[in-house]
Design goal:
Elements (H helix, E strand, L loop, with lengths): L2 H11 L1 H7 L17 E5 L25 H5 L4 E3 L9 E3 L7 E2 L5 E5 L14 H13 L6 H7 E8 L2 E6 L11 E2 L9 H4 L19 E6 L5 E6 L18 E5 L4 H9 L5 E2 L4 H10 L3 E2 L9 E3 L4 E4 L9 H9 L3 H9 L16 H6 L3 H6 L2 E2 L4 E2 L2 E2 L2 H13 L7 H8 L3 E2 L3 H10 L3 E3 L2 E3 L7 E6 L5 H16 L3 E6 L4 H7 L4 E4 L12 H4 L25 H10 L8 H16 L2 E3 L3 E3 L2 E3 L3 E2 L26 E2 L2
Parallel strand pairs: 1-11, 2-8, 22-23, 22-24
Antiparallel strand pairs: 2-3, 4-5, 5-7, 6-7, 9-10, 10-11, 12-27, 13-27, 14-26, 15-24, 15-25, 16-17, 18-19, 20-21, 28-29
Helix pairs in contact: 1-7, 1-8, 4-5, 7-8, 9-15, 10-13, 10-16, 13-14, 19-20
Length: 633
């Protein structure tokens, strides 16, 4: 039995004592002078922040993004909610209307809201947007410098509420950079940064807020951050939806999974970001106050992200698609699903999350193509796709879960996914041999005769589901004769991911809007123009550092097609086919987040019954739930 599972069992045994000990509901060392009825305590999944006083989100550093900074202090032009939204999926936030393009998508105009103010009393204007772009273009070390520099020929503010972007080439998706799905290009305060000598080295401490909350205090050791509702919250874009319920928000590091369970049972953690399925099962059983996205199985919120085995394709070992495909054929996805989610996973064989609008737009229409897809192993052609895998997982769970497991094929596909790749050790062997690898004494060696060693980087306790998926995959690769090893990067995975310091890792480089069929949120960032040289920091999302002229052509065509144009779906399918053939990442499943919400102090959380927002607390979109929360009792 693993240490985590043992601790979870101990937590369940100690529940009665824990509940008796519950006092003020404060924990994590946060100040005790804040009335609990005014305080919402949320988990910061980034854990303890090493550089706690760094708030310059525009400069890549070891500071935190999910400590409340992007959720409640910053703002940008637009938001797309993966759920239904407060007033529809699309929200004009700092912008007054949707983006306006010229006929050939070489110019975008953004009209801005009036009456929005920074927390220090300075009015927000178009000059702030211009400064956000020009400051980052001038400073390559800043987070969005590459994407802005490659797209923007000029940016001007003809008046305080108008911004005009002239683009270097047609790009009908340029606005996606300023559209929050999880995060985006946040607007920086011109009046603050214009006084700074080096914007990339400026800590932005104390941060000036553009949204409804302002920093109240934080732990210098990085364990908690407290934000207070602005007195002038009406002068933020969130103000038009009403006054947020909590006066104070605490984003905390509650510790490993067992401690998160205990903290919520003790009413000291209102929102758990994510825990292992066992933790969710324990909370559902032991706490009448806890609510997840679904009332029962599978509990978790299905994020529009796609966990995968992500290869560093700049590593010589993983440049050959045959090698990547061989590793895919050595995975038994049923075992991975059971290990990671205890079966509560929705699998995907293609590079699109099986959530939101995507099953109807991509998965179902491409099923016939997947069934006929062939791989040339060098000795024969094989059809690797098995359309029954989702049903197999459902059948495995039915004896223990009974009526909770659907029997209708459509419901099974919705809950567990459709097909996946067959576990085919013989096919994998033929592909590796085709690539020049050899098996000696039961162990695989590389073309130059060295042991075939693959490190699989995981986040440890910070993301237990992904860690367990990686551990199972390593076990399967080891059984096939590969020197596979788990590489635990607790708290350092984002930094190492960006630096390319990995062979492979379990995470995602595919993130979609969910509620909209367009794939540009991640796909545009996969263009080869954004691929960093080995050893250099990789800009957002193309963590696999994959370059493909064919993919560049698809992306460039998408840039000339309107955001809502059906032609973008056909181009999206072209990307899917290319990704299947090349396998730059091995798609696994949707990321089901076991966010647990304690209703002891606050009610009105978003759920599948009332899906007005994403409850996962590190998402920028999570700010919308604060206007719906009310004190309990």
């Amino acid at each position: 039995m693993s240490r985590t599972r043992a601790l979870l069992l101990v937590a369940c045994v100690l529940v009665p004592q824990l509940l008796v000990l519950a006092g003020s509901g404060h924990a994590q060392g946060i100040p005790q002078n804040i009335p609990r009825r005014e305080l919402l305590i949320l988990e910061n999944p980034e854990g303890t922040i090493k550089n706690a006083g760094w708030f310059n989100i525009w400069a890549i550093n070891a500071g935190s993004q999910s400590n409340g900074l992007q959720q409640v202090a910053l703002d940008t032009l637009w938001y797309i909610d993966p759920e239904s939204g407060l007033d529809g999926v699309w929200d004009n936030s700092l912008a007054a209307d949707k983006p306006q393009y010229n006929a050939d998508f070489t110019e975008m105009t953004a009209k801005l809201r009036q009456g929005i103010f920074w927390s220090d009393g300075v009015e927000f204007t178009a000059d702030d947007v211009v400064a956000t772009v020009t400051t980052q273009i001038k400073n390559p070390a800043m987070r969005f410098s590459a994407v802005l520099a490659s797209n923007v020929a000029s940016v001007t503010a003809p008046d305080p509420t108008t911004v005009v972007f002239k683009l270097k080439k047609p790009n009908s998706r340029f606005h996606a950079n300023f559209t929050v799905r999880w995060g985006a290009v946040w607007i920086l305060p011109k009046h603050v940064f214009e006084k700074v000598e080096d914007p990339a080295k400026f800590d932005f401490n104390k941060p000036v807020s553009l949204s409804a909350y302002v920093l109240s205090s934080y732990d210098p050791d990085g364990k908690w951050y407290i934000w207070q509702l602005r007195d002038d919250w009406q002068r933020s874009s969130l103000g038009r939806f009403g006054k947020p319920g909590p006066k104070y928000l605490a984003y905390v590091d509650p510790g490993p999974p067992d401690k998160r369970v205990i903290a919520q049972l003790n009413h000291e953690l209102d929102v758990v970001h994510d825990i292992a399925p066992e933790g969710m099962f324990a909370l559902a059983k032991q706490s009448k106050a806890t609510r997840a996205w679904f009332k029962g199985f599978p509990y978790g919120h299905p994020d529009p992200t796609l966990p995968a085995v992500i290869f560093n394709t700049q590593n010589e070992l993983f440049k050959n698609p045959d090698v990547r495909w061989a590793l895919a054929l050595l995975i038994d996805i049923k075992a991975v699903s059971m290990a990671a989610y205890r079966g509560a996973a929705t699998i995907s064989a293609i590079g699109v999350p099986p959530t939101g609008t995507h099953p109807a737009t991509y998965h179902q229409p491409m099923e016939a193509w997947l069934r006929e897809f062939e791989l040339d192993t060098g000795k024969r052609k094989i059809k690797p796709y098995d359309p029954t895998v989702g049903k197999q997982i459902a059948d495995m769970l039915r004896p223990s879960m009974g009526e909770q497991i659907p029997s209708d094929p459509a419901d099974i596909a919705r809950a567990f996914g459709m097909g996946w790749w067959k576990a085919d050790p013989q096919g994998a062997q033929e592909l590796l041999e085709k690539a020049g690898f050899a098996k000696r004494g039961g162990a695989w060696t590389t073309p130059d005769g060295k042991p075939f060693t693959v490190r699989v980087m995981v986040e440890g306790d910070l993301r237990p589901v992904m860690t367990r998926a990686g551990t199972m995959i390593v076990q399967q690769w080891k059984q096939a004769g590969i020197d596979a090893r788990i590489d635990v990067a607790q708290g350092t995975l984002p930094t190492r991911r960006a630096a390319g310091d990995f062979d492979s890792f379990i995470g995602w480089s595919v993130e979609t809007f969910g509620g909209h069929q367009d794939l540009s949120y991640f796909l545009d960032s996969w263009h080869s123009q954004f691929v960093a040289a080995p050893g250099k920091v990789q800009p957002l999302r193309n963590w696999q550092r994959w370059s493909s002229p064919a993919l560049d052509g698809i992306i460039e065509q998408i840039r000339t097609v309107g955001f809502d144009d059906p032609r973008s779906i056909e181009l999206g399918k072209d990307y899917v086919k290319l990704a299947v053939k090349e396998m730059p990442t091995i798609p696994l499943m949707a990321y089901n987040v076991f966010t647990a919400m304690d209703q002891t102090y606050w009610t009105g959380f978003p759920t599948s019954d009332n899906p007005y927002a994403n409850p996962v607390p590190n998402w920028g979109n999570s700010r919308y739930m604060f206007v719906k929360l009310k004190p309990a009792g």
